[in-house]
Amino acid sequence: MMNKNYCLFFLFALYSILINAQCSNPKEYVVNGDFSAGNTGFSSDYIYCNTANCLTANNYYAVGANVFFYHNGASGTIYDHTTGTPSGSYAMYNGYDTPNKNLWCETMTICTSTTYTFSVWGVNWSSTSQYGARVELVINNIPVTVFNFPTVVSSPWALFSQTWNSGSSTSATVCLVDQELNGFGNDFGMDDISFRGCSCDFSPGYNVSICSGTSTALSASGGISYLWNTGATVNNITVAPGSTSTYSLVMSNGSSLDTTRYVVTVYTTPTLTVSSNSTICAGNNTILTAGGANNYVWSPPGGLNTANGPNVIASPLITTNYFVTGDISGSCPVTATVTVNVYLVPSIAIITNAGSCNGGGTVTLDGGNSVYYNSYLWSPSGVVTETIDVPASGTYTLTLSNSNCSTSIPITLNVLPTINTSSPTTICLGNSATIFVTGGTSYIWSPAAGLSNPTGQTVIANPLTSTTYTILGTNQYGCSNTGNASVSVSVNPLPTININPSTISICKGSSTILNAIGNTVAPPVNYIWKPISGLSGNTTASVTALPTVAIVNYTVTGTDQNGCYNTAGVTITVNPLPTIAVSPNKLICQGVSVILSATGGMNYTWLSSNAQNAATGSIVVAAPTVNTTYTVIGTDNNNCSSLGTVNITVQSTPVITVSSNQTIAQGTATSLSATGVGTGILWLPSATLTCDNCLKPMASPTVTTTYYFTVTSANGCQSKDSILITVIPKQTCGDDIFVPNAFSPNADNQNDYLYIKTKDDNCILSMSFEIFDRWGNKVFESTDIKEGWDGKYKGKPLTPDVFVYRLQATFSDESSLNKKGNISLIK
Q1: What b/e string do you get for 370-397 counting C-beta neighbours within 10 Å, with b at 16 or more?
Q2: What pLDDT, in 10s, does the model give residues 790-825?
Q3: Closest-CA residue to 648 (of 721, 575, 596)
Q4: Pick from 54, 137, 751, 767: most CB atoms within 10 A?
Q5: Distance of CA 641 to the CA centre of its chain
Q6: Which of 250, 358, 191 has the alpha carbon at shortest distance from 13?
Q7: What sections of 282-413 are H helices per DSSP?
Q8: Nearest residue to 515 via CA among 497, 488, 492
Q9: What is the pLDDT of residue 308?
Q10: Which residues contact residue 163 at a Cβ distance below 8 angstroms, ignoring those fewer than 6 apart?
């Protein structure tokens, strides 16, 4: 009945939480509602602008403080709603002329079945507005309400709000849409957009572990009211269960409930016991015991035979507190302490008497006045006093005791010190050796040269030559002894090693041999080259280096048979290969030459695949008869070379033949004949041919002519040959007419008259022969070839001079002549 009543109470309490809880501090879901962060945190279908007067066009918006900057026709001074100062920001819009365009949208995660309040502040900034904005609230694409913004110009900010329940929605896309489409006005601002409601971010339950007899705090958040199964109604409670327990919690945020649970696991805390404190004499031990747990760890571990387990053996040198930590199952450890007191052994004082350093006399042994021991027994004498005089050498035992325990101290006397040294050693020149001496309390080394400390027990020796050091040792009694106390340090010379040369320059991709050279007296027997990268090996005197970096420093360390080593180095500079650029591959016709060129080097050598002679130079001329690959070796000023290749493909030319040379009479024709196959045939010159693209044209040259025959193949290659046609001119009546260019009318009957000469006077049908002096006067004229000029004009002889003649004649073969020339009159 009790359980039933409790359940009824719990259900009633839950109902009260759900009914009475209110969201006292609702959550704000809008991230930049006051626009203080500028144009961020939301989206818009409008076009964002941020320049002067950019709001003079519809469909634009800006975020800023001064509406006059964005529209110089704005009316009044309008500050933002949040701060009311010129430094605040708000969103300014020039209304759209198209419906259903989003002014502002934001998507947020919300709680189900929760009532939210949306609000926005609006203002009208148009100077000519007759129409205020009609801003519609749309959530998840569903219209909720319409806010009618002010129509009064420069009116105060107005608040618009609306509540909305989320139902089963866990996300809300909240949008504001301007549905006023009138372009006259509809200029407005928005600020302090808010969407508030209870948060549903309930904290989850968790598991926690505690030790028995302790408590723990359980905390929750996200609600405004809480009910634990313990009856508590606060968000944080403290519980101290005696065993593992589960705690249930119901939380409410004012609109929804959440149930979670916490599991508190309780581990048993052991009741740890430990043995009582104990006291032992130095050198003795005692057993320490712990109980009440399953696992044990002891500390400090010094003086214990083990650090784990319920029973340990303790043999501390001094009084020590030991801690033991025990647990049952790895949880809730408990620590206890036990003290082991140790009776310390006093120091035995040895006091030398006169003559002791010479091996005679006595010494006094003093057992000390210990606070832990009250009984002394010296053996073998049986003396029971604190002090005793004994011979300077021998073995004695002092037994100390008290009511609980006893301890014995052996004493061996040798007043004159026995000085022992380290073994002889060998070093390499430049190295050092650590040598030491024992048997005394102070020492003097000789010679001191090459020693780090000539009075130390352990010294570092770095002699330049082999040296024997002698040591004088003194003990605590002031007795000194040298005896045979000496140690030798032998010094071996370093091997000589060189690399010749010390600097090397090679081309990329090439290798070089490095030789390490040692002396002949004690040459190195082992070699180590570093770095190994790029080397053929690293343990021989000679290695091949093929480095891949621009500069590399190699070192070789040579070690001789004594283990002494020396190092030499070499620097290798790797020069890059020249980049040789060559002319492109080409197609040529057989019998044609081609120019090949190369750049990128200093010197060039050209080789061909058909074993033609090599050529040099950056530009060469090649005339291959078959397909040929030319390789050029370009060498730079570092003597590094690279290759370039050019492929020349030789295309065959047509095979042609032509007929033999001919001789014809002027005015006759002859046949030219040729053979050849190709895509084009051409005869030149073509003016006296019947055709220029046939194999057998007729030729009618008037003068001796060479005709050239060309055949072009499909690949563009040509073959040419020629035919010489010799033309014998046709004889005419006027061909043999001759006018002398000089005569001498001096009455010597030798060349006194100037006649026109011809072989056949009958060929001339008509003629006109005129002679003029230098002033154009006609001095002679005749139409009869048999009439000559006697050098007179108007019956008077003319003086010597040069005259001009003009001869015109027609002949019986229908040819004619028109000829001019000069005549010299001499006497």
Answers
A1: bebbeebbbeeeebeeeebebebeeebe
A2: 999 998 999 999 999 999 999 887 788 899 999 999
A3: 596
A4: 137
A5: 31
A6: 250
A7: none
A8: 497
A9: 94
A10: 115, 116, 117, 118
